[in-house]
Amino acid sequence: xxxxxxxxxxxxxxxxxGTFAGRVGVxxxxxxxALPSKRLNNADLxxxxxxxxxxxxxxxxxxxxxxxxxxxKESTKTLxxxxxxxALAEARMEASELDLIICATMxxxxxxxxxxxxICDILGAGTTGSFDLNAACSGFVYGMNIAHDLIRGGxxxxxxxxxxxxxxxxxxxxxxxxxxxxxxGDGAGAIVMRATDDVNxxxxxxxxxxxGTGWKEIFVPKCERDFPAGAVIDPATMNKVHMNGAxxxxxxxxTFSNLIQETLDKGHVKVEDVDMFVCHQSNSRILESARERFxxxxxxxxxxxxxxxxxxxxxxxxxxxxxxxxxxxREGHKVMFLAFGGGLTWGSSLWQM
Length: 353
Ligand code: UT7
Fold this sequence. Notes:
This protein has ten helices and 13 strands. By secondary structure, it is α/β, with parallel strands linked by helices. It folds into two domains: 4-196, 3-Layer(aba) Sandwich (Peroxisomal Thiolase, Chain A, domain 1), CATH 3.40.47; 202-352, Thiolase/Chalcone synthase (Peroxisomal Thiolase, Chain A, domain 1, 3-Layer(aba) Sandwich). The strands form four sheets. A five-stranded mixed β-sheet has the order 1-7-6-4-5, with helices on both faces. Strands 8-13-12-11 form a four-stranded mixed β-sheet, sandwiched between helices. Strand 4, helix 4 (115-123) and strand 5 form a beta-alpha-beta unit. The chain starts with 24 loop residues before the first strand and ends with a strand.
């Protein structure tokens, strides 16, 4: 694997640093979430596999996750559409007023069309442009950076960004799958981003990285050739998540801290000036290691993994929505969004809200 600190990408914004400064600002005009109706707590998992509440809580911090109920027609598109509908209501907009809809997902409804296209149909978005973005757990943060710059550059004024994933469809809820099935949950979150005359609002710094040599640490094979050379192939694991938990854990712990430092440096911002860290909820121990390294108070690094598990592309917008609803992220705050996952990918987005 490539040393995550070896390469740097992205750039800084603001006076003297970016070509876009002074044109238009970007603000979050609305957020929304949607969660499946079915709850799967640790006791439920204990009936399906050899595990315990104590093991799961100690190793991951997770107590419950939500999973879709196919009988109720819950899926990536229905969750994504519901989340964006709520975000649009807060922004007092119709879907047809959006210039673009982006759906960050690794569990798209089908191969073609994109889930974002299906969401356009559900919401009656007319001919609004739309596409999916797959950067696994980093997808939503990648999407924030892309959508922001499309607005900042002047090409678009209103963009709906969704993070929606239904990893329960890629799990084996049995002993063989216990290393992954305990972690993941389903959900969706969305934001509406709008252009504003306040040029101070929007990104201060961002980063998007990938180490493709680490692809085999998390992958979903469709056929035999998708497996790494020499792998023993169990047909029951086709179309299921294969994850080397220990390797991803190690990658995440070092990457997370390095990414915070890189983003602070790019933005010329001190850690104490950041009001909130909104992080991908992968494992509470990974979050805790970064919190300790930077000496952050508990209330500056939000954790909701205990209730939702790791919801992949949905986890960052789920946190943001809860924080805004509680008044803990508001206008004037500096907020750092961080994510890492399959790819291996990692990315950050530091905002002046
Ligand atoms: O979203 C981004 C992508 N994913 C992540 O960030 C996940 C990162 N990784 C992790 O969170 C952790 O690696 C896991 C929670 C997945 C696993 O925890 P771990 O402490 O790394 O466990 P392990 O895989 O090293 O396994 C330790 C032991 C093994 O038993 P032996 O070989 O020591 O006897 C496993 O078989 O724990 C066993 N084990 C379990 N025991 C009870 C594995 N899964 C379970 C389970 N319940 N569900």
